[in-house]
Description:
By secondary structure, the protein is mostly helical. It has helices spanning 13-28, 30-35, 39-49, 52-57.
Amino acid sequence: MKTAYLCSDDFTLADAAIAPFIRQFANNDREWFDALYLSGVQKWLQGILESDRFLSVMEKHPAWESGMDEPAFPST
């Protein structure tokens, strides 16, 4: 891989557009995905998943169950 992201060394709209699909694809069977000979894609995805940008928007919330108060977004 010659650049950190798809089009350059900067995160662009192209990365933002395709990353959710690659993430979902990879998470379907992570062991299989990690065994593929796609080191550039794997490194690109891992860099995004570990970025402050991604982590700041992917706050984990507990799964809602019947009887619980409905979640308020954004949380206070």
